[in-house]
Design a protein that fits this description.
Elements lengths: L1 E4 L6 E4 L5 E3 L4 E4 L5 H16 L11 H17 L2 E8 L2 E11 L2 E8 L8 H15 L4 E7 L3 H9 L3 E7 L11 E8 L2
Parallel strand pairs: 7-8
Antiparallel strand pairs: 1-2, 3-4, 4-5, 5-6, 6-7, 8-10, 9-10
Helix pairs in contact: 1-2
């Protein structure tokens, strides 16, 4: 059982820990391991501005130490139930990443793909799979947030039946193409 921190009101939501691997006909989602450091860095470096425009952690390059730091953090988050991050693997190679972050009463899903893997519907199918799993584990809602100018990221929740519920100021570091205003999409348990 994993518990996510509440919304500041002292509440806590506990849900079953998800599987470490999800299989789909076209891809595999696997919990990140420390052995993924070099291939992770290679995918991010090969994607250059494609990622750096939209995610601050890819701005200015991505080093072996950056990959190691991420892998340590994702392992810690998994153990505490704060977040569950997965590599998206196609034909054995890393195509991108997707994470499920626990929130009070629900989850937030974030994602990225290497440039060579875009336009194939991988993230849409991965989000659908992880959203269904989150609802099965007891989440009341699934949210996706993206910068208002990142229309490709916004197309995913729109395609999957999420509703844009609000705009909010981004609370994290901003990448060069970002405005600092996020669109927040929500899908609720039926």
């Amino acid at each position: 059982m994993a518990c996510g921190a509440g919304s500041g009101r002292g509440t806590m939501r506990c849900m079953e820990t998800p599987a470490e691997t999800f299989t789909h006909d076209e891809f595999l989602l696997t919990r990140w391991t420390f052995a993924d450091g070099a291939p992770l860095r290679a995918v991010i470096e090969a994607s250059g501005a494609h990622l750096a425009d939209w995610v601050f952690w890819a701005t200015g390059g991505y080093s072996d130490e950056d990959a190691a730091t991420f892998l340590r953090l994702t392992n810690k988050n998994w153990e505490t139930g704060r977040a569950y991050d997965y590599a998206i693997r196609v034909d054995g190679s890393i195509a991108g990443g997707i994470g499920v972050m626990t929130r009070d009463g629900g989850v937030e899903i974030g994602y990225w793909l290497g440039h060579a893997s875009t336009g194939r519907g991988l993230v849409s199918r991965a989000v659908s799979l992880l959203a269904a799993d989150a609802f099965r584990r007891g989440a009341g809602y699934v949210e996706i947030k993206h910068d208002e100018l990142n229309t490709r990221s916004g197309a995913i929740p729109a395609r999957l039946g999420f509703t844009m519920v609000r705009k909010e100021t981004a609370d994290e570091d901003r990448a060069p193409a970002c405005t600092g205003v996020n669109h927040v999409w929500r899908l609720t348990a039926s």
